[in-house]
Design a protein that fits this description.
Helix content is 36%, strand content 21%. The protein is built from 25 helices and 31 strands. The strands form 10 sheets. Strands 2, 3, 4, 5, 8, 16 and 17 form a 7-stranded mixed beta sheet that branches. The chain has a 5-stranded antiparallel beta sheet with strand order 10-9-21-20-19, sandwiched between helices. The longest helix is centred in the first third of the chain and has 32 residues.
Length: 749
């Protein structure tokens, strides 16, 4: 029988155990409700509530002409709720079959999906199985789940958006693209991300013990706010023209470091086109777009000795093609910069239209400067002639008249010491230049003709525009307005004049000088019949890169042209970086890009040609349609137009002709008339006339039974054929028109 002391000890033990149990419960209650409350609350919410995101629709990007450049469409994410899925007690066979189906439809890793079904813990009810799938595919999955009696609460679709770029590579470096999270990372998509993105909404609903959604009264909806749409100043037609001609230049001259072009409204700063070539496809930005680069990378990857370098080189190539060369990269502007030196000296009244400068070898502090490697001497010349000749000694003399203080002051005033302020990400901070206190006589001399300071293309075209638009330095911009989903304009961009750099008088004189550069001696590579064009080419040595790579053949070819020359509306800059081959001069490489673009752009913009009398004599002739006419009548009409006729067949009436109606051929060309039904055209092989003079090319093509259409600097006696629209070796019908572009191959740039 237990004694009192035994009972007392037992009571103590029981009491201690009871108190310990209470303490344990209290500690755990405290840990659950206080210390770990966030985790347990999340578990409870995860079990009791379902939160579905309603993605905001990203705003669209439109060109100035209304074309869609970027647009979002509704797609779907496939979401798994492991908790609800496990409540379905599906067999391993069912889960494996579902994993196989997901792999078949969306490429989902089967083992990874099976692991997803086993996930537990806070937030475990939301597992992304597949993202951005089309509605048709999402609907097929739902049908499969219903057929297999798998809960659509466990595997469901969530609305999302996908970005599409209907124009593919057009203006790619300007528009930019999104990352995997849907955020803008390049171009306008990044710069205006806050406007475009919108605000996501959310649906929060209660669920019962089986994971099924409870009635509507337990649901709360927070609507999404769609993003704003952005309207650009870029015109898709002008962008196409610029990219087409820039691509032709790249194919012809194969630059080692890409090329770029900018078309800008000379008076407002609105960017009408901006291109980098080679570019990339916005719908697949990770793909290397340039075929040559892609082939080199493929060789690198397939070679065991170099395969380890592939990832690094691929990343470099990818980043390079995404960069907007027009605003991010520096180059020596070369002779294009002479426009700035000349305008500054004229504004300061240090020179005038009668001032003369002698072309000679110049010794500046022991450094000798020659004109075109000392091969030429232009003698005495005024500013207009010196600009046409692109005479370096003349501009060294002008730079000496300015002095380093005034030169540096105008360099800053024209905007070269800071950003232009264009509304695009990645613009280089400033040019690379000598501060006034560091500029000696040699640096001033070389800077005066554009061979020391390095600038960006956007800086150069903006400064050049100021030199010819009345003297006003404007801020370039690519966005015209931003509009919300209701059509309300939330932001409107107005032209911004930063300052007046030179007077209207000086600007008017520079326009005259630069028009004379184009028209001098009957027209150069930038000449377009019926239009008043002003412009200046540039050919600069890449001194730093030549030194670093131990080479002497690295150049930059550039050209800036504007029209109409007397009252400029548009201005275009082209820069081709490190062209290969013998023709690396700006007047040959870059100038034709501007000329050929302007030929289409000016009529498109409503500028009609106005021909001088001497231009009419050189104009190509439109071929009349004489089908159905008698042979005698047809011959009379065509010969009256200054063309020759060749009749094929014995018929009385014309049943066919070559060239076709509305074709244009040079005066003296031949039209072939076919007079018998079921006639067969005679074919000939196109010869190569590249490098030939106008007379030589004409003779070769005529002897081959072809017609010639002259283009470019064909009025110059020293011009030679630069390109032809039909390649050598092509078989074409007799009488076909071969358009030949002529150029002057000199170093005036």
């Amino acid at each position: 029988m237990p004694t009192k002391s035994m009972k007392f000890r037992l009571n103590i033990i029981v009491s201690i155990a009871f108190i310990a149990a209470i303490v344990w419960v209290v500690i755990n209650l405290f840990a659950t409700s206080v210390t770990n409350s966030t985790e347990y609350r999340a578990r409870a919410n995860s079990s009791q509530f379902r939160s579905v995101e309603i993605p905001a629709k990203r705003g669209s990007i439109y060109a100035a002409d209304g074309e869609v450049l970027a647009q979002s469409a509704t797609v779907y994410n496939i979401i798994l709720d492991p908790t609800v899925y496990r409540n379905g007690n599906y067999t391993l066979e069912q889960t494996t079959a579902l994993a196989n189906k997901l792999n078949e439809m969306f490429g989902v890793d089967k083992e990874k999906f099976i692991r997803m079904t086993e996930v537990t813990g806070a937030g475990a009810n939301y597992q992304k199985v597949a993202v951005r799938v089309e509605k048709s595919a999402a609907d097929k999955l739902t049908e499969y789940l219903i057929e297999q009696d798998i809960s659509t609460y466990s595997l469901y679709t969530e609305q999302s958006t996908r970005r599409y770029y209907p124009q593919n590579e057009l203006a790619a470096s300007v528009i930019g693209f999104l990352n995997g999270d849907g955020d803008g990372v390049y171009g306008l998509e990044a710069y205006y991300d806050n406007y475009l993105a919108g605000v996501d909404g959310r649906i929060i609903s209660a669920r019962n013990a089986k994971g099924q959604e409870m009635p509507y009264k337990y649901e709360r909806v927070f609507d999404a706010q769609d993003g704003n749409s952005v309207y650009l100043t870029i015109d898709t037609t002008l962008q196409y023209y610029a990219e087409r001609e820039l691509r032709n230049a790249v194919m012809t001259h194969n630059p080692e470091n890409r090329a770029c072009a900018i078309i800008m409204n000379c008076k407002t700063g609105a960017i009408l086109a901006m291109a980098t070539c080679p570019g990339f496809d916005l719908n697949n930005p990770a793909e290397i777009y340039d075929e040559n680069t892609a082939l080199l990378l493929e060789e690198l990857k397939n070679n065991p000795e170099t395969a380890a370098l592939y990832d690094e080189e691929y990343a470099k190539a990818r980043e390079s093609q995404w960069k907007n060369k027009a605003i991010t990269e520096y180059y020596y502007p070369g002779s294009v910069f002479k426009v700035i030196t000349g305008a500054a000296a004229y504004e300061e009244r240090l020179i005038n239209s009668e001032s003369t400068f002698y072309c000679q070898t110049m010794d500046v502090s022991g450094v000798k400067f020659h004109c075109w490697q000392n091969k030429y001497s232009h003698g005495s010349q005024n500013l207009a002639v010196a600009m046409t000749n692109s005479c370096n000694p003349a501009f060294i003399q002008i730079g000496e008249l300015l002095g380093r203080e005034k030169f540096s002051a105008y360099y800053e005033s024209f905007g070269f010491t800071g950003r232009t302020g264009i509304d695009l990400p990645g613009e280089a901070r400033s040019s690379i230049y000598y501060q006034v206190e560091d500029m000696g006589p040699v640096e001033l001399a070389s800077s005066s003709f554009g061979q020391t300071n390095k600038v960006t293309p956007i800086q150069m075209i903006t400064a050049y525009a100021a030199a010819v638009n009345g003297g006003y330095l404007v801020t370039p911009y690519v966005v015209d307005k931003i509009v919300d989903e209701n059509g309300t304009v939330v932001k409107s961009v107005e032209p911004n004049v930063r300052r007046q750099v030179i007077s209207e008088e000086t600007s008017a004189y520079m326009r005259t000088v630069l028009e004379s550069v184009v028209n001098n001696n009957g027209g150069g590579n930038s000449y377009i019949q019926g239009y008043r064009i002003g412009g200046k080419s540039g050919t600069s040595e890449k001194q730093d890169e030549n030194l670093a790579e131990e080479r002497d053949d690295l150049y930059v070819s550039s050209y800036v042209g504007f029209a109409p020359a007397d009252d400029p509306e548009i201005i275009m800059l082209v820069m081709v970086d490190r062209p290969t081959g013998a023709d690396y001069y700006g007047s040959v490489v870059a100038s034709p890009v501007v000329t050929n673009t302007f030929k289409d752009a000016l009529p498109y913009l409503g500028f009609l040609p106005s021909y001088r009398e001497e231009e009419y004599a050189r104009m190509p002739i439109y071929v009349q349609d004489v089908s159905g006419l008698s042979v005698d009548t047809a011959k009379s009409r065509i010969e009256n137009d200054g063309l020759k006729v060749k009749v094929v067949g014995e018929g009385e009436y014309v049943v066919g002709q070559t060239p076709a109606r509305n074709s244009t051929i040079s005066r003296g060309g031949t039209v072939i008339l076919y007079t018998e039904q079921d006639y067969k055209e005679e074919y000939t092989v196109v010869p190569n006339v590249i490098g030939k003079s106008v007379s030589e090319a004409n003779q070769i093509l005529v002897e081959a039974g072809l017609n010639i259409k002259l283009s470019g600097a064909s009025s110059r006696a020293d011009a030679t054929a630069l390109m032809q629209n039909w390649a050598e070796g092509c078989e074409v019908p007799n009488g076909t028109v071969v358009e030949v572009t002529f150029a002057i191959h000199d170093r005036t740039g």
